[in-house]
Design goal:
mainly alpha, elongated
Length: 195
């Protein structure tokens, strides 16, 4: 009787942990999707007067797009891949039973893929943060001018996408931590250390 109660408590705990992991994955999915969409739709145009001939100003229209910077392109691709990774892992968690898990191999593969996703997202978000700093403040030594004083909405939208990506990274890290701690606790294949 007592052993059945302990087994029931263990299965209840596992189901709660599973629900927590699913919630964290859904939140990571939303964050990376938001970052992808916001950056992919990031575009702003302005018309500037560059010279005056007589009384007529000569104007030029400049457009800032995310495609103009390789870091932004990498950012959109990395967040898109992270979104697809979240969808794939959610479908595996919801539709594939544990009977296909061969000696914990699924845990190792999922954890490794989560860590690769975190690394790629982190690199892309850091590259965009660097380019955002350069766009906001310029670089007087290299004589690169500021961009954000003319394209403020473009820079604000890029900052929002970067923030959403960092939030997605945080959720992926939490998923990884919960998975690792819970796998260590409930691992049926671990060998006790002999005393």
């Amino acid at each position: 009787m007592a052993q059945e109660k302990v087994a029931d408590d263990g299965s209840i705990r596992r189901s709660r942990v599973m629900m927590l992991v699913i919630l964290l994955r859904v939140l990571a999915l939303f964050a990376t999707t938001a970052a992808t969409v916001v950056m992919a739709l990031n575009k702003e145009s302005h018309t500037f007067a560059v010279a005056t001939i007589g009384n007529t100003p000569v104007k030029i229209t400049l457009t800032a797009k995310f495609q103009h910077t390789p870091a932004n392109i990498m950012f959109v691709i990395a967040n898109g891949v992270a979104t697809l990774h979240s969808l794939l892992m959610l479908s595996v968690m919801c539709f594939v039973s544990n009977k296909y898990d061969i000696k914990g191999l699924r845990f190792i593969i999922v954890t490794a893929l989560d860590m690769v996703t975190i690394a790629v997202l982190s690199g892309a978000a850091t590259a965009v943060a660097f380019m955002g700093e350069l766009a906001r403040n310029g670089n007087s030594h290299a004589r690169w001018n500021k961009v954000c004083d003319n394209f403020e909405r473009y820079c604000d939208q890029g900052s929002g996408a970067m923030l959403a990506s960092y939030i997605g990274i945080l959720f992926f890290m939490l998923v990884n931590l919960v998975n690792i701690f819970e796998h260590g606790r409930f691992n049926p294949y671990k060998n006790p250390i002999p005393a």
